[in-house]
């Protein structure tokens, strides 16, 4: 199966029903030094932003809206960093 067909099978006509960042524990279990954004689709599938195909670390998602001429990045955040305000929480040692 080609990549585009795979992407269509996973994503097309689905709804995002939950959005959250990985927890410190989840990121550490993956061997990552940062937490990526993840979202759940209405069929139960979870999508997790990662830096590459080898799951080397958390990754970012670029977004854009050409009609409103806006764009941005949903970036990964460091371990022990609050997902709400960005402040460090305690010791950042893994």
Written account of the structure:
This protein is 16% helix and 30% strand. It has helices spanning 3-11, 24-29; strands at residues 16-21, 34-35, 37-41, 46-48, 61-65, 70-74, 77-78. The protein has one domain (3-78). The protein has 2 helices and 7 strands; from the N terminus they run αβαββββββ. The protein is globular. By secondary structure, the chain is an alpha+beta fold. The longest helix has 9 residues, at 3-11. The strands form 3 sheets. It has a 3-stranded antiparallel sheet with strand order 1-3-4, with no helix packed on it. The protein has a two-stranded antiparallel sheet with strand order 2-7. It has a two-stranded antiparallel sheet with strand order 5-6. Strand 3 and strand 4 form a beta hairpin. The mean pLDDT is 85.
Structural class: alpha+beta
Radius of gyration (Å): 15 Å
Helical content (DSSP H or I, runs of 4+): 10-25%
Order of helices and strands: HEHEEEEEE
Number of domains as seen in the coordinates: 1
Strand arrangement within the widest β-sheet reads: 1-3-4
Give the low-pLDDT segments. none
Number of strands: 7
Q: How many DSSP helices?
A: 2
Instruction: Please outline the major beta sheet.
Output: 3 strands, antiparallel
Beginning-to-end CA distance, first to last residue: 38 Å
**Beta-strand content bin:** 25-35%
What general form does the structure show? globular
Instruction: Calculate the mean pLDDT score and round it.
Output: 85
